Amino acid sequence: MTELNLNIHAAGIVEEGAFAVLDRVLQSKAAGNDVINLGIGQPDLVPPAHVIEAAIRALRDGPHGYTSSVGIDALREAVAVDVMTRTGASVSRDEVVIVPGGKVTIFLAAMLLGGAGAEILYPDPGFPCYREAIRLSGARAIPYPIHQEKDFAFDAQEVMGLVNANTRLIIVNSPANPTGGVVPRHELDVLAQGLEAHPQVLVLSDEIYSQLVFEDSDFTSLFSHPGLRNRTILLDGWSKTFAMTGWRLGFGVWPLHLIGHVRKLISATHSCVNVAAQMGGLAAITGPRTEIANYRLVLQQRRDALIAALNDIPGVSCRVPGGAFYAFPDVTDTGWPSEALADKLLERAHVAVVPGDSFGANGSGFLRLSYATDQARLLEAVERIKEFLVTFPALGRAGNFL
């Protein structure tokens, strides 16, 4: 076959590690193995009943046609009210854009602000989609370090040291994937102060886990910061909060002067989000949230049990995450490279985790474990990991990785 001349930006995209692991999990389960999947990041719940009923009603009764490219007015209005309630920032319906999943907001921002000669800063370790969206836009992807010793937050002065005349966007994620880290308010203050000298730079604040923050965390929405409000694109959605990952429903709140550009990009790509998902999203965001509050308490209990168990494994250390549902243990002292360890844990112990390398160079030496699963299975997974490391310690340190 003749070799095709593919777009270099598209051909260079790297598959997201969590989905690559998921494919291996499905294959292993099909082969009859009892796999504990701590790889994929999604709540172990079903959406609330009233949400499902709203979507069924929309499928049955309609409407069945296109909606506005930026979403149904009632849903956009409800999002504006919800964001105002949670952040204290003033938000209008006209700033809200409904999209098929949070990733779309990342790509829209990269397409608008990227291009040849532009630079976009993103966290490392961080959600892999940031890096790939930047690359696809043609911009230069500039990683900034997330520090374990700062409980997986960034140093704002260090970030500002990477900003120059070519910088167009800084991506911030708090609470974060893959670490669960929460950026303290004082770092946001320093970032806002530093950006006063760079009016060309916008911020994309990924707050998809903002409603899964624990009681002992000092979370502040970047969107609520008065110095950055008119320069911030807020990313949020229904996937994590309402256990609606498969519905592909998210939203962005944009500076008003960018909405026209966003509309044009959407009209050239996905046109609009399907009606049934939007109606389910409306029911979710305007309905009761008792299940969410209860789930957050369950997650905190799982977190505490998991972190204690992980720190009981020789060679493993793990910080306490402030939000989301991920643990990011440091496995350097086990002698195993994280990619090799993740591979063999799935193959030999039937525990699926994601190697930290999938989230950037600074993730090397770590594993990501999702604790959005039953606590008994979580602790069983840790026992399997511990047993594996006890059985094969010397092999790992000798560099012979089975």
Give an overview in words.
- This protein is 40% helix and 12% strand.
- With 402 residues, the protein is α/β, with parallel strands linked by helices.
- A seven-stranded mixed beta sheet has the order 2-8-7-6-5-3-4, with helices on both faces.
- Helix 8 links the parallel strand 5 and strand 6.
- The mean pLDDT is 93.
Series of secondary-structure elements, N-terminal to C-terminal? HHEHHEHEHEHEHEEEHHHEHEEEHH
Biggest sheet character:
7 strands, mixed
Poorly predicted regions are none
Helix content: 40-55%
Q: Structural class per helix/strand content?
A: alpha/beta
N/C terminus separation: 37 Å
The total beta strand count reads 12
Strand order of the biggest β-sheet:
2-8-7-6-5-3-4
Strand share of the residues? Answer: 5-15%
Mean pLDDT: 93
Q: Count of helices?
A: 14
Cα shape: globular
Rg, rounded, reads 21 Å
Summary keywords:
402 residues, alpha/beta, 14 helices, 12 strands, globular
